[in-house]
Design goal:
Length: 323
């Protein structure tokens, strides 16, 4: 009886201590370089969530490196008070199979808040590459065995996973070149320092439209219906049967964040994902904003578990690891 009363009193105390949340700026850690696709969704989301979160500033902190795992570890160790959050992508599901010394446990060290969006990827190349469609690209890759560079945002990143799948389906040997995000990778692709890259449409659409890069295919099972990308075949159509990579982003808090705070963030997340400007920004670049049924901790966690189960065997079969 005494014990129960004490637990209730402590819970009430914890709730009232956070009743005014947020009382100061909230930081969202983006574990990739500024200017890239994860950063873009983070910044657009920060703008959309500011009002529903009570009008406090929502600040982006780019903690880039090691395929997004540095930023995720920082949030896993942050004070669980709702003032440090994380937006990351598929890396949450790929990193456990890839990193021998991962500094966090994806399913144990975070509070899951909900999915934000899904984004297709495109296969692109430097503008000077001598191929104008996917068939020519595949021939060029085979003809240049051992010499082809493929850019990515580090082990476990979306671009790495897409590239890994591409290499293994093509049975082609390419040299992965890791960056702290696909914003710096894109700069090198534009400058011709690397040959090809697989990256989210939220980073590539503008460059494809401006013809600054060559685009060969989309990674989704269906073609995209945004004007700049509608003519691109799917990789499945182009000959890589069953190829399907879609990237998702989601919101997390450190484990132990009080329930009252999580509820407020989750409610704000739901409102932000209905924001007209946010939806327009995302959809114009081929992304699909999550709908209600997926914006909750239970479904978000189930989804990440399913993604871990989907990627782990593929990663193990390709024998790629990092410390
Ligand atoms: N697009 C990146 C990736 O390949 C991450 C980023 O730079 O936002 O995972």
């Amino acid at each position: 009886m005494m014990k129960n009363l004490l637990a209730t009193a402590l819970a009430l105390l914890a709730t009232s201590a956070f009743a005014e949340y947020p009382e100061k700026a909230v930081t969202i850690v983006i574990p990739f370089a500024a200017g890239g696709p994860t950063d873009k969704v983070g910044r657009d989301f920060a703008e959309a969530v500011r009002k529903p979160l009570g009008g406090q500033a929502v600040v982006i902190d780019n903690v880039a490196g090691a395929g997004g795992t540095l930023g995720a570890s920082k949030v896993a160790r942050a004070t669980p008070d709702g003032y440090t959050l994380l937006i990351t992508h598929i890396g949450m599901a790929t990193s456990p199979a890839l990193y021998r010394n991962l500094q966090f446990k994806p399913l144990e060290d975070f509070e899951y808040l909900g999915l934000i969006n899904e984004v297709p990827m495109t296969l692109i190349s430097r503008p000077t590459l001598a191929a104008n469609n996917y068939a020519e690209l595949a021939t060029w890759i085979q003809a240049n065995k051992g010499k082809v560079n493929i850019a990515n945002a580090g082990l476990g990143s979306a671009s790495h996973m897409c590239g890994m799948l591409l290499q293994s389906t093509l049975k082609a040997d390419m040299t992965p070149v890791p960056y702290k995000g696909t914003a710096p990778a894109m700069n090198d692709l534009l400058g011709g320092q690397v040959d090809i890259m697989c990256d989210q449409t939220t980073n590539t659409t503008g460059q494809i439209e401006a013809k600054k890069v060559k685009a060969f295919a989309v990674t989704t099972p269906k073609r995209l219906n945004i004007p700049a990308l509608a003519a691109l075949p799917t990789l499945d159509e182009a000959g890589l049967k069953g190829f399907n990579v879609t990237i998702w982003h989601a919101l997390y808090a450190p484990k132990g964040t009080p329930k009252a705070v999580l509820d407020k963030i989750n409610a704000a997340l739901k409102v932000a994902l209905k924001d007209g400007t946010f939806i327009k920004n995302e959809e114009s670049l081929g992304a699909v904003v999550a709908v209600d049924a997926r914006i909750n901790p239970v479904d978000h966690k189930k989804f990440v578990e399913a993604e871990i189960n989907r990627w782990t065997p593929l990663i193990k079969a390709n024998g790629q690891y990092a410390d």
